[in-house]
């Protein structure tokens, strides 16, 4: 009997997988007998009693899941939380437009100009938001992870855009067995729930300023299935924290300079502060905001900072 207890404990406390290569990758089943590749610190289908939190970190514009997996692992180590945290970094590959990834046979691909917004196209018919839904349903499983208490979904830059829109439009929040929290770091733009912008008459010079991904006009696919009314009702009540780098005030690192984005403010930091303040005033949201001293546009800096670790791990 003692041998059985020791054996089960050794499985539950197996050393985390922390190397950003194929040894720490897993295939998550997707529609059409395809799969999504994710980096993960522990197997997603093996029972682990130590896991209290799932930390999903979404990569940025370069679709470099390996870099974000490393940043997430480092942040968990810095917080002494790796032993209790299942780290996941999904890999959203794209091959159209300017995206020239080299996915494996059977791997699902996403739209180059749509993966960060959950938009599907004729060439890439699966929404990245639906793909994440499937990952979350897999891990929100008390049979596999009986100690699980929460799932934290975070992203930086284009990944921050992904998480902000996913937090607003997903239909899985409230249907899984543990709470979801969202951490949005330094996105170039935000999904507004209204037509107001911090500039006068934005539609005069930018007729498309309120179309999705910047506003709620013209919803399609996944977002349209959720609907405008549900988005407006749900998003302000969800557990969202905005992380803004104090030094992220320049247009470097491919900041969105299109007219719908510029209608939201001159730089990423100002856009985030304005969005947060307006959402609180108009929709009385329960969201939080944290400034990160010394950080510009760097996911590693943001999530390894004291306030980044506070937002994810509560410490």
SSE inventory with pairings:
Elements: H1 2-12, E1 25-30, E2 34-40, E3 53-58, H2 65-78, E4 85-90, H3 128-139, E5 150-156, H4 158-169, E6 180-185, H5 202-205, H6 221-226, H7 228-234, E7 239-245, H8 259-262, H9 268-283, E8 288-292, H10 299-304, H11 306-313
Low-confidence stretches: 1-12
Average pLDDT confidence is 95
Strand order of the largest sheet: 1-2-4-3-5-6-7-8
Structural class call reads alpha/beta
Q: What global shape is seen? A: globular
Beta strand count: 8
- Oligomeric nature of the chains: single chain
Overall number of domains: 1
CATH class: Alpha Beta
Full CATH superfamily name: Alpha/Beta hydrolase fold, catalytic domain
Question: Could you give the order of the helices and strands?
Answer: HEEEHEHEHEHHHEHHEHH
Instruction: Give the distance, in angstroms, between the N- and C-terminal Cα atoms.
Output: 38 Å
The count of helical stretches stands at: 11
CATH architecture: 3-Layer(aba) Sandwich
- Beta content: 15-25%
């Amino acid at each position: 009997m003692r041998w059985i207890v020791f054996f089960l404990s050794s499985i539950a406390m197996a050393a985390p997988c922390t190397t950003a290569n194929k040894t720490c990758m897993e295939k998550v089943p997707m529609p059409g007998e395809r799969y999504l590749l994710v980096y993960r610190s522990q197997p997603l289908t093996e029972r682990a009693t130590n896991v209290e939190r799932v930390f999903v970190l979404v990569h940025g514009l370069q679709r470099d899941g390996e870099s974000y997996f490393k940043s997430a692992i480092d942040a968990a180590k810095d917080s002494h939380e790796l032993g209790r945290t299942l780290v996941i970094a999904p890999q959203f590959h794209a091959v159209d437009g300017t995206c020239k990834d080299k996915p494996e046979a059977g791997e699902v691909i996403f739209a180059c100009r749509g993966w960060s917004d959950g938009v599907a196209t004729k060439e890439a018919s699966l929404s990245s938001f639906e793909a994440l839904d499937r990952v979350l349903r897999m891990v929100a499983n008390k049979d596999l992870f009986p100690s699980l208490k929460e799932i934290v979904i975070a992203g930086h830059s284009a990944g921050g855009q992904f998480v902000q829109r996913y937090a607003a439009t997903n239909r899985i929040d409230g249907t899984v067995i543990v709470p979801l929290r969202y951490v949005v770091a330094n996105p170039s733009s935000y999904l507004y729930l209204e037509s107001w912008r911090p500039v006068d008459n934005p539609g005069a010079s930018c007729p498309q300023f309120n179309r999705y991904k910047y506003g709620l006009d013209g919803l399609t696919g996944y977002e349209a299935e959720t609907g405008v009314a549900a988005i407006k009702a749900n998003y302000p009540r969800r557990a969202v924290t905005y992380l803004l780098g104090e030094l992220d005030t320049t247009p470097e690192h491919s900041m969105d300079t299109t007219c719908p984005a510029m209608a939201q403010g001159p730089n990423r930091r100002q856009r985030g502060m304005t969005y947060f303040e307006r959402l609180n005033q108009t929709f009385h949201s329960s969201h939080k905001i944290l400034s990160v001293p010394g950080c510009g546009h760097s996911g590693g800096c943001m999530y390894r900072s004291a306030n980044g670790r506070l937002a994810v791990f509560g410490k």
